[in-house]
Amino acid sequence: MMCILAISIANGGRAEAHNLFVLIEPQAEGPDLVDIIFEHFPYPGKGTYNQPHLDRGKTWVQPLGSNEKISLNLKEQTRLGKKFLQAKTDTKGPRAIIHTCKWGVYKGRLDYFNGKYLNVSSKEEVADLAKTSELKLDLVPSFDGETVKITVLFNDKPLANTRVTIWAPGSKETNNMTDSNGVITVTKPKSGTWSFSAVHTQKHLSGEFNGESYQGVMHGTTVSLKLPLK
Fold it and tell me: Which pTM was predicted?
């Protein structure tokens, strides 16, 4: 996490669309730390828009092979002048850690943000934890030999021609478009933490939330995991 913060300072905090990242800081002793980062990049920033995640976001652990959802409580943290949200968990992997939030109205549109981290060590564990039924927009990893596939689903249906933003270890952000089956592929991924993000907007929906009217509903979801897996 410290090296991530150093990168954040070097980049100077560009003003970009936000994504919701869930990351883990494993601890040799005591509870692991779960970091919720709501910035464009997967490292902390100004934390300007964190409050809705504290007010109405939900964070939980989904252990492998269990239907139990273990709730986590977030608190805002500051490290090297950068702000992010953090929780502690006594659970250990394999597990999925998930955060969802009906964030609110922004520039006349209602936004939902979701993120998950798959804390796994094998492809078989991913198969059990990859799909999250609570998410309207979901990014589901799978494997074909040394190729990683990310399927983008909305209401369980593949989203074709959808942009997926990719953050690879030590690399600049890149983008790829899903094929007709809603899939992007990464061949022989380098070792480290990868994040994949997509958005989908329902432009026809309108209504009111917390006294503000909106036109259009946007869902943004990010999945992160360490690659490659055995």
Answer: 0.92
Note the pLDDT tens digit of each residue in 119-160: 999 999 999 999 999 999 999 999 999 899 999 999 999 999
Q: How confident is the model at residue 178 (pLDDT cuts 50, 70, 90)?
A: very high
Give the DSSP per-residue string, 77-132. Answer: EEETTEEEEEEEE---SSEEEEEEEEEEEETTEEEEEEEEEEE-SSHHHHHHHS--
Distance CA 204, CA 188 (A): 40
Q: What are phi and psi of 167, to 5 degrees?
A: -115, 105
Q: In which region does residue 70 sit, left (phi positive, over 0), alpha (psi from -120 to 50) or beta (all else)?
A: beta
Q: Which of 146, 124, 224, 137 is nearest to 182 (CA)?
A: 137
The DSSP code for 210 is T
**Contact indicator for 98, 70 with CB cutoff of 8 Å:** no
Alpha helix (H) ranges present in the chain? 2-11, 51-56, 123-129
Count of CB atoms situated within 10 Å of the CB of 157: 9
30 contact partners, CB below 8 Å, separation of at least 6: none
How far apart CA 60 and CA 9 sit, in angstroms, is 29
